[in-house]
Amino acid sequence: MSDKKFDVVVIGGGPGGYIAAIRAAQLGFNVACVDEWKNGKGGPALGGTCTNVGCIPSKALLQSSEHYEHAGKHFADHGIKVEGLGLDIAKMLGRKDTVVKQNNDGILYLFKKNKVSFFHGRASFSKTDDTGYELKVAGAAEESISARHVIIATGSNARALPGAAFDEENILSNDGALRIGNVPKKLALIGSGVIGLEMGSVWRRLGSEVTVLEALPTFLGAVDEQIAKEAKKAFDKQGLKIELGVKVGEVKSGKKGVSIAWTNAKGEDQKLDVDKLIVSIGRVPNTIGLNGEAVGLKLDERGAIVVDDECKTNLPNVWAVGDVVRGPMLAHKAEEEGVAVAERIAGQHGHVNFNTIPWVIYTSPEIAWVGQTEQQLKAEGRAYKAGTFPFLANGRARALGDTTGMVKFLADAATDEILGVHMVGPQVSELISEAVVAMEFKASSEDIARICHAHPSLSEATKEAALAVDKRTLNF
Ligand code: NAI
């Protein structure tokens, strides 16, 4: 075994990995984290997909493109005149890169603060014995490190469409979608999931004609149907073309762009020629180069590392968290698993409540939810009560000039326990936290209805939707 010995080695420095490393260090362990992501200069870029090509840069571009859209379309409603409005895409992308770098550097700082040793390179298993595991780190120099516990947090990669590999020039993954240098006149997205809708929104706001091709016949199948319908109405109004129930055929990429053959829901053959294509049809767990075979690490048929409810793999003292294991591919789910694993290694009772993991789609209007949807409750045969409140009747939303959407509560018919909260509208990415806290504490809808909410605030819509469960809204 290597003489560079650690109590815990974390492989991967994304939200699952870096948070696990920090929590383990807080608990008194000697911790190392290995991550191979490189910035443009070949240096480390901690934070994984989320920080480098996911959550953070997409939110930076969503914000910039929203400002642009407001300046062009909505400032006039406020009596603000804008002349000579223009776009400097290079500057917009540069700002996004700065935001990413601030986050990268922030994690390096946190590692120093918490005394986590950082290795820049790719970690792979070499061998195991009674004392733990030996790992090879292939970076600028090759090193060998060993650990009693290993936490694998290697994330996921974009899934390519068969026969249309990503070239990040014409056929783009989430990575290339964040680096388009000129606004494409025509843009297609395959997959109307989270990435499809967020990236489609960015480039539509900046001026692209956007078509989204979705295989499923229903829009946002995992979202509460009423909320998904409301969101679709808003996206249609904005001019985002969403085609459901399609079958994508041959995709040809050439000098002039991309040509996509597809069949619509009626079975009619169609052709779409676009400047760029973003493929956002889900992601696959990443175990590339891990050499799990050397130690007998078990994967499932999807290529995910097999773990139990506590994130234990089939190997003693080897754990796995985040996108590389079962469950939703969300940064905050990975973080919670990372913390729980570090605490379990310390003999504590780390816990992740999968029923209260919030979901957010950062489109405009934003979509956010926690818990069960109405269609799920119906399928289960559970007796429930529902209450909704539209932002149209909320004073703050009117003052903001953004009254799209609603808040919806679902509560148990007998006990009134909140079973799900679903939102579409302004800033619901922030409003959903109240619902998460309420569900974590097993609150009833009456609990929320009795709590004093600041006026005027969007959060009053949450209170009113809770009141609506008992059919006693005050402002609608
Ligand atoms: P997704 O799973 O959200 O959506 C993929 C969509 O593509 C589905 O609607 C699916 O029916 C469709 N699809 C699959 N194969 C297709 C085909 N051949 N033709 C047409 N449509 C097809 O996956 P997405 O958007 O790629 O995102 C990947 C992961 O990243 C997700 O797990 C998501 O939760 C996560 N993510 C989360 C964000 C957030 O929390 N705001 C932001 C971006 C990504």
The CATH class designation of the largest domain is Alpha Beta
Poorly predicted regions: none
Structural class, from secondary structure content? alpha/beta
Major β-sheet, in short? 5 strands, mixed, barrel
- Portion of residues within helices: 25-40%
Rg to the nearest angstrom?
24 Å
**From the coordinates shown, what is the CATH architecture of the largest domain?**
3-Layer(bba) Sandwich
Number of strands: 21
Q: So, the CATH homologous superfamily of the largest domain?
A: FAD/NAD(P)-binding domain
Structure description:
This protein is an alpha/beta fold and about 475 residues long. It folds into three domains: about 5-160 and about 285-350, 3-Layer(bba) Sandwich (FAD/NAD(P)-binding domain), CATH 3.50.50; about 170-280, 3-Layer(bba) Sandwich (FAD/NAD(P)-binding domain); about 355-470, Enolase-like, domain 1 (2-Layer Sandwich). Helix content is about 30%, strand content about 25%. It has a five-stranded mixed beta barrel with strand order 1-2-3-4-5. A five-stranded parallel sheet has the order 7-14-8-9-10. It has a five-stranded antiparallel sheet with strand order 17-18-21-20-19, with helices on both faces. The structure holds 1,4-dihydronicotinamide adenine dinucleotide. 1,4-dihydronicotinamide adenine dinucleotide binds near residues 190 and 248. 1,4-dihydronicotinamide adenine dinucleotide binds near residues 191, 193, 195, 216 and 283.
